[in-house]
Amino acid sequence: MKGLNQVGKQFRSNSNNSSTANMSNTDMNMRGKIIFYEDRNFQGRSYETSSDCSDMSSFLNRCNSCRVENGSFMVYDRPNFMGNQHFMRRGEYSDYMSMLGMSGGIRSCRNIPMHRGQFRMKIFERENFQGMSHELMSDCDNIMDRYRMSDCMSSHVMDGHWLMYEQPQFRGKMMYLRPGEYRSFRDMGMSGMRFQSMKRIMDM
Predict the structure, then answer these.
(1) What is the tens place of the pLDDT at every residue in 66-116?
(2) What is the SS3 assignment for the chain?
């Protein structure tokens, strides 16, 4: 187990080739730490990382529990940061399959760097930055009530890290956005989802 953890610490994903990757030096220096376990209740083989991991199967056959010792992470039920997403902050998740409803287990994860400073994001009603648009610098619990926007299909994140929710009041399925341009949420595997609220990921 010890050897596996050491491998995990050395792992560095090449996820920065994504068009959405554009983290500052300040972000890069503030890493979290998460430990995944093959069995429930933190049993079995484990894999520890402070970085993005595009495919958990490279280290564990399965993943049924995890512990976030520092920082916060997004976990995904498909490799390459695809599929259903869940936000995980510091704490213990002894059986996240039942807690989070991820029947397929965690297949990939992203570290969410700590951000200090202003938050700024522009949302667009249509793909490719078309249609009605508004700039956000704080949380928005309902884009329909606040901006009379019925949908949000693309965005440009200038500062900070954000969570997008499919329902008002920060409920329902979510999507993590870090600084970068997002021309089409549908092309990111979010077809059929309509995002109705947005929240900043603040310093924990």
Answers:
(1) 999 999 999 998 899 988 899 999 999 988 766 666 666 788 999 999 898
(2) CHHHHHHHHHCCCCHHHCCCCCCCHHHHCCCCEEEEEEEHHHEEEEEEECCCECCHHHCCCCCCEEEEEECEEEEEEECCCEEEEEEECCEEECCHHHHHCCCCCCCEEEEECCCCCCCEEEEEEEHHHEEEEEEECCCECCHHHHHCCCCCCEEEEEECCEEEEEECCCEEEEEEECCEEECCCHHHCCCCCCCCEEEECCCC
